Amino acid sequence: MGTDRDQHQPALSRTARAKHSHTLINKTIPSILRGNARARRGVEAVELIVDPTRHDEHPTLTLTSSFHPQNTSNTAPQPAPTVTPPTRSITLTISPTLFAASTLSKTPSPSPIPHRTPPPRLAILNMASPLRPGGGLLTGATSQEESLCRRTTLYPSLHEHFYRLPEVGAIYTPDVLVFHSSSSSPSEEQDQTIDDKKDWFFIDVITASMLRFPDLEGDEADIEGRRYAEQKDREMVVRKMTAVMRILRAKGVGKVVLGAWGCGAYGNPVGEIARAWKRVLLGGPGSEQDTVGSFGEMWDGLEVVFAIKDAKMAGAFARAFGPELVVVDQPVTSVPSEEGAEDER
């Protein structure tokens, strides 16, 4: 793998990418699906889930008490049980989505959910177009969604009748086969190849859309100072994120790759998105978890990785999120040209 973007071969034109995408959709992916029953079942099991309800179960929430049955003769008041807060892992990596997913698939979960069989699932967020399956895949666009559809069996599950995507809700596709992760190809030409089968892996994909072109206030040059002009947009973002997390929890997901959702072509402020994710994941004012005396929907036992390709955006995201987000070193020294253009839509 090269160590500098200048070593990459020239990027494919948009027309060439569109032609390659048509070949993938019409020939390559159908051939892969014919030879892989699990991937076929995943496409068949796709669901459109609208405005999911709250789940109050806490599979890993444990009670710690100083009360012992053998001491029941003691009439002194016993201390009330104390609740051990649920554990979560929230990190940020400067990498493409599928590279982060590939890395996560090879590491054991730090806080597995006890008594759960099968093991917790690995999922990624497809930051999608609300209007068209695959966004601009067939016209050669290079946002995150198009990249996912060129490297996985996701696209056949994105049925036309699911669109327009719901404001609150998502398409959920289990067992999506990744046949080309972003860790091995230094150019778009080589990106057209397929990985050795030993390197294939499965993920679940949740496909959902963020606000498009919201009204903003603040200096356009200040990436961290831009804010939503309307409180209703801030509230809708939290609703969208909460819906995604509810679906992930209901599906038994233990590891998930998220992103700076909507901070690319759709113009959402990175600081607002980071703070919204923090409210949803950790609780706080404006979140569905802001409930006195309750941990609310705290997504206990979940390992969250934010994968953000753009280093400047990743830095702004981390600063807005705060110290609860751990920024990890990224071992990638070179990324494919297509992924280099990947935007968060």
UniProtKB/TrEMBL annotation:
Residues 1-20, 54-87 are annotated as: Disordered. Residues 61-74 have a biased composition (Polar residues). It comes from the Eukaryota. It holds the Pfam family PARG_cat_microb. InterPro entries: CHP02452 (IPR012664), Macro_dom-like (IPR043472), PARG_cat_microbial (IPR019261). Residues 79-179 form the Microbial-type PARG catalytic domain. NCBIfam families: TIGR02452 family protein. This is Microbial-type PARG catalytic domain-containing protein.
